[in-house]
């Protein structure tokens, strides 16, 4: 009896083992859509906020991305300079915001600190697509928060009827201005009572806004009253003291006054940005554009550079796919297409010599000048710099203060403002 029971148990175990080795029924999918597991996290759409009146180019690029990835792109226009970040602060936490936004780079630090934009995780190959300075502009506290869209910086613009060639050096430009400033006409004009433009000669002579520490901007290290900054401000002072610049281009209305003089054919050359090209064309001025002449010792005019970028909202539930879209729209092919549609100059290094840019005098000038330009600091403390520096420069150019005293006063005010508004 025991023997029979043992044989029976052996048969049961063998049948169980065979069943375990047999084919298993596949688990059913987790939903009834039939989608593959790897597609489960793919969103149906991504929402993109582009600048006002600038979204036309996205129609083709978005369609290409949708065809390649099966994700629809929904585009909404929001005015970038003033409304984009404020709308993100409201719509992001409410769950009605975008996956992707565009911003001027000097807003990155503020929004990163407040947690509104996400750090990007992209390869070194992707970063190498762009100029180092533009990637630096998209970074904050050693982390990357965006991919460059376009860059702009002041360049040297001249009336070809009044100036046949670009002066070789800034010293040559000064000599030209001395010889051609008379009877209400001017050889060269710049808004050097405005720190955005004055930064070029100040930094070109050794001044700087913030130093660096551990790869990040250090707001405790101000270089706006050092020896180089004073030398650069003395250089600015000379142009006003010698009446090479008219009194009318000082202050808030200086820009429109300068534009008017140039477009009336009364100025041979100016320091201005690509935003001025349209008005010059409309005025019928045949103008040329070039990177700024360097100083005689080879030191460049270090203009401020602004970089517009693409960013991923920290509130997006699709950050990985949003990053893929950023990589797609900023690749060389799509960056070139955007330039052709908007005339905004990309920072893709491969496009500097592309005929689309190389044969466009204005775009080439911007692309070349950005190589010597300095990204405007994107840390929140930069907001404390503008007003004191504007005040200092205006007291200098109107003869009310000497450069060292004016800059010392500005730096003292900046330091106090930083301590008061940004101390942790």
UniProtKB/TrEMBL annotation:
<dbReference type="InterPro" id="IPR006059">
    <property type="entry name" value="SBP"/>
</dbReference>
<protein>
    <recommendedName>
        <fullName>Maltodextrin-binding protein</fullName>
    </recommendedName>
</protein>
<dbReference type="Pfam" id="PF13416">
    <property type="entry name" value="SBP_bac_8"/>
</dbReference>
<dbReference type="InterPro" id="IPR006060">
    <property type="entry name" value="Maltose/Cyclodextrin-bd"/>
</dbReference>
<comment type="similarity">
    <text>Belongs to the bacterial solute-binding protein 1 family.</text>
</comment>
<keyword id="KW-0449">Lipoprotein</keyword>
<keyword id="KW-0732">Signal</keyword>
<keyword id="KW-1003">Cell membrane</keyword>
<keyword id="KW-0472">Membrane</keyword>
<keyword id="KW-0762">Sugar transport</keyword>
<feature type="signal peptide">
    <location>
        <begin position="1"/>
        <end position="19"/>
    </location>
</feature>
<keyword id="KW-0813">Transport</keyword>
